[in-house]
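Exercise 7. Given the encoded structure of a 136-residue chain, write a plausible sequence.
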């Protein structure tokens, strides 16, 4: 089966994928929105991570996260959004690994989010299921 001839997604898989994607979208909207205003708590928690206590740095990260999330939420650009969010999470993973944060709770949190992100997209997008067939 080619990508242009995709099989329909079963209803249970579709709704599970939408739920997983919805959780990621809501989390990333929250993450991006709290970085937009110059909140002291956001800038002060960036310092131990090696980022400057600069509202503009936080705002830049918030905008990048929100744009990537918007691309992920739109069906036509969802794969591009997933790639950008994976890169964003890679930066978070590298930051937490660099400063020696706990592995399973902090450092791998981005990995957990990416598993949900790609799992949700795989379950709801027939094109991705045709591109990466796990079963025949």
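Solution.
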């Amino acid at each position: 089966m080619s990508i242009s001839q995709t099989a329909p997604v079963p209803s249970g898989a579709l709704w599970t994928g939408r739920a997983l994607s919805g959780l990621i979208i809501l989390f990333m909207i929250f993450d991006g929105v709290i970085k937009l205003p110059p909140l002291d708590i956001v800038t002060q928690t960036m310092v131990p991570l090696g980022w400057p206590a600069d509202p503009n740095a936080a705002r830049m990260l918030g905008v990048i996260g929100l744009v990537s999330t918007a691309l992920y939420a739109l069906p036509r650009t969802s794969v591009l959004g997933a790639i950008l969010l994976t890169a964003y999470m890679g930066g978070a993973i590298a930051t937490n690994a660099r400063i020696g944060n706990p592995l399973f709770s902090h450092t791998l949190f981005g990995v957990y989010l990416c598993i949900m992100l790609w799992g949700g997209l795989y379950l709801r997008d027939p094109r991705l299921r045709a591109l990466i067939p796990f079963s025949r």
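Remark. Residues 15 and 55 are 38 Å apart (CA to CA). Students should compare their own answers with the one above.
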